[in-house]
Amino acid sequence: MRLINRQPGVVLKTTLVALPFLLAFVAYSIGSEIRLAENPSDKLLPAPSTIAETAERLFTQPDRRSDRILLWHDTAASLQRLVLGVGIASALATIIGLLIGLLPHVRATLAGFVAVLSMIPPLAVLPILFIVFGLGELSKVVLIIVGILPFLIRDLSQRVLEIPRETIVKAETLGASSLVIALRVALPQLMPRLIQAVRLSLGPAWLFLIAAEAIASEQGLGYRIFLVRRFLAMDVILTYVIWITFLAFMMDLALRRLSQKLFPWTEAGL
Amino acid sequence: MSFVTATDIFQFYGRRPILERVNVSVEEGEFISIVGASGCGKSTFLRLLLAQERPTRGEIRVADAPPAVEPGLDRGVVFQKYSVFPHMTVRENIVAGESFRSRFGWFSGAAKTKARKRADDTLARIGLDHVANQYPATLSGGMQQRLAIGQALAAKPRILLLDEPFGALDPGTRLSMHDFLTELRAETGMTVFMVTHDLEEGFKLGDRVLVFDKPRWDPTDPNAYGATITYDFDARDGGIPFQRIEEDTHVLQPA
Q1: Residue A122: inside a domain, yes or no?
Q2: Best interface-test mutation with B: which of A174, A181, A189, A194 has the largest number of B CBs within 10 A?
Q3: Cα separation of B54 and A177, whole Å?
Q4: A222 in a structural domain
């Protein structure tokens, strides 16, 4: 039997899914063990048990100076920026994407411009954003928007163009105006693709968020990581990294579930 | 005066001629089958009728109105694929046939209730009432095409254009779709243009069969000349002509 036709059974599949996670954990534990055996006060690879203790402390105990549980505050601050940035970017991208995809005049005007804009490295314009929008929340949200908006616009306008011409012509023969075609034909078919695009852009969005927080901020997950880096507090950094990964993963999962729930017609044909 | 007249239609894509010197006139209520080899401009001619494209030269007039510049309510269309809206349920697809012409494409309140009622009648008529709440992707090919035809008819067009509507269906489904279309046509008396690859289908359903072909052929440059209507058959009475005596004769008719 060819390898491409061999399917793992349920048990084997579960094992295989868990395997890389286990291997990574074991490799880390061994590395940590070796270093700690040499030098018990080594900070680079803290033992998993140390990380668990630190994590418990970070999640439950308030900071002695400010009397707040910093991790939750950082999470709230970061998520607020992320949701605002991604939300505004997706709303703008939907509108602009529809216009570019449906209206030849707008397409001629904007498509090339957006293609060039999307080549600007967003982090390179971060100083400009700080100068223009100050060091507050606004510049961080704007960085996320600047970072993912061109990609979202290009992706969504392309998706609008991929709607079969037949479907659009059919709507025309039913007497639909351009507005009705946009609202009732293009937009509903764009929504599942918007969620797809947002899922893909969540990675870059986190990148820009943490970059902005690392450079100028007073709270936030990225800020905390770059703050404790000075003390080589690897246990704190690793806790934050695992927490961010978990948040990102849950967002991705939630968006996928949302898409399945809201747009059953996309699954039906598959 | 004829209902649909095409006068001296030429269509070029770039410098390549697709159609040349196409002249045809069609009476209201006729069923026109359009056949021909692949790449002979059948679908192009249908797109011209639909006003999805405009001819390079010549003009197509419907009921003596000025030539249309874009597809509109007077011409309904069913393509081989993608003729229904995948994001709407079967019932919503039928309602869309009426609601899309409104300002925002939505009905609300009493208008919505009435439109849904009418849609349910249509669905019962085309035998899709049991799947009214499903999405088109869950339907078979034949059911999707029936839905597409029902949706096009909900807008009450004067002309129905069919671009190989049954091309992707299996032979059994195709036969039942023929009956379905014949019945619908008897009810509505609509003018129909149908492009098909299937000669038998063309002759079975059509009152006239138009054959598109290239009258001139350059073997060293197959694209040098465009196609035109080379035959215009009377397909009534099983394709046997001279069965209808149009004028008064003195021949003794059986009582």
Answers
A1: yes
A2: A174
A3: 19
A4: yes
Does residue B130 contact residue B120 with C-beta atoms inside 8 Å? Answer: no
**Domain containing A138: what range?**
74-262
Sign, CA dihedral A220-A221-A224-A230, equals: negative
B114 at interface of A, judged by CB pairs closer than 8 A? no
Q: What is the mean predicted confidence (pLDDT) over A244-270?
A: 85
Handedness of CA B58, B63, B66, B68 (dihedral sign): negative
Residues in chain A with CB shorter than 8 Å from the CB of B103 are: 177, 179-180
Angle at alpha carbon of residue A84, lines to A82 and A87, rounded to 5°: 100
Question: Would you give the distance in Å from CA B52 to the centre of its chain?
Answer: 14
Which residue of A166, A176, A265 is in closest CB contact with B87? Answer: A265
Provide the domain count of chain A.
1
Nearest residue on chain A to B155, judged by CA atoms? A174
Pairing of strands B57-62, B208-213: unpaired
Q: How close does chain A come to B48, measured CA to CA in Å?
A: 13
For A241-255, the pLDDT digits (tens) are 999 999 999 999 999
Say which CATH number the domain at A89 has. 1.10.3720.10
A269 lies in a domain?
no
Nearest chain B residue (CA) to A171: B100
Domain-embedded: residue A11: no
The per-residue pLDDT for A15 is: 95
Question: How close B16 gets to chain A, by Cα (Å)?
Answer: 23
